[in-house]
Amino acid sequence: MATNQGVVGSNPASRAISPLITGNSSKPDHWLFSTYLILYKYFNKNRILFTDLDGTLLGGTRQDRDRLTDWLWSQNGQIKLVFATGRSFENIAPLIQAGELPEPDAIIGDVGTSLMLANGDPICPRIHAEIDTLWALPSQLVEQQLAGIQGLVAQHKTGPRRQSFTFTPPIDLQRACQAIEAIGADALVSDNQYFDVLPKGIHKGWAVRRLMDHWQVKPEHAVVAGDTLNDLAMFQVGVPAIVVGNAEPALRQALPSNSPHIFQAQAHGAAGIWQGLSHFGWHQYPQEN
């Protein structure tokens, strides 16, 4: 999570280098520098928690969420928090301002089609340019392709690189998906109520990979967490993953059984994330059922 901690802080790596900075050590400079590098690699792993919001970080009780976010703050900036959500920035910002959500280091919004800092600025304009290129043609054809599909209701408060709909079964989703694929875009159905049209190959998993590359984070230093099918792509990135206890059955069915990097939590929402982080060794508190 965001922090203003300086170079010489409270973590062991910072304490190791502080004599080198202040000139108060009797050790040779090369020894101090070598020691710092070793400690830096061990204690400053630049870990990232990528978490969905609705049903995941926002799932469970407020007490569960506060326990998790308070612990993240206590890590002195060694763990980045990234929201990976179907919500747009305009929908997330009021929750942060009201204190319902902590301020993240970044936001993957609009089902992976927007990558932003907490203030709404793009993390990397080049990444958005890639998505814009893929979305240029399909964006003009979506409504025409779906005109004959009964039961889809357009959502208007979404980002500029996707179109989103809600639906209530029964509905011919197979026909709708085929219509979208015909114009070179992807259709994503989740939680048995959302139908998203996305640029080809763009989803939460793609955005997680791009952000990890941008921040040069190794797979073993990241964890993803989610609860619906629009999180499935994150679980296919190959990093440690947490399925919270209230996840939709369709997500569980889509995941491989007995995968060592996927933890099936029993607790719901934020409490499930807490269980998963314990399972993967991020904190030493016992798991709670």
Q: Which CATH-level-2 architecture of the largest domain?
A: 3-Layer(aba) Sandwich
Q: Write down the overall geometry.
A: globular
Number of strands: 11
β-sheet strand percentage = 15-25%
Q: What's the total helix number?
A: 12
CATH topological fold name of the largest domain: Rossmann fold
Total of domains: 3
Strand order of the largest sheet: 4-3-2-1-9-10-11
Query: Compute the gyration radius: what is it?
Result: 21 Å
* Helix share, percent: 25-40%
Supply the helix-strand structural class. Answer: alpha/beta
Question: Regions with pLDDT < 50 over 5+ consecutive residues?
Answer: 3-25, 36-44
CATH class designation of the largest domain: Alpha Beta
- CATH homology-level superfamily of the largest domain: HAD superfamily/HAD-like
- Average residue pLDDT: 86
Give an account of the 3D structure.
Mean pLDDT is 86; it is low at 3-25 and 36-44. The chain has 12 helices and 11 strands. 38% of the residues lie in helices and 17% in strands. The strands form 2 sheets. The chain has a 7-stranded mixed beta sheet, sandwiched between helices. A 4-stranded antiparallel beta sheet has the order 5-6-8-7. Helix 10 links the parallel strand 9 (222-226) and strand 10 (241-243). It folds into 3 domains: 12-43, no CATH class; 47-124 and 202-279, HAD superfamily/HAD-like (Rossmann fold, 3-Layer(aba) Sandwich); 133-199, Hypothetical Protein Ta0175, Chain: A, domain 2 (Alpha-Beta Complex), CATH 3.90.1070. By secondary structure, the protein is of the alpha/beta class.
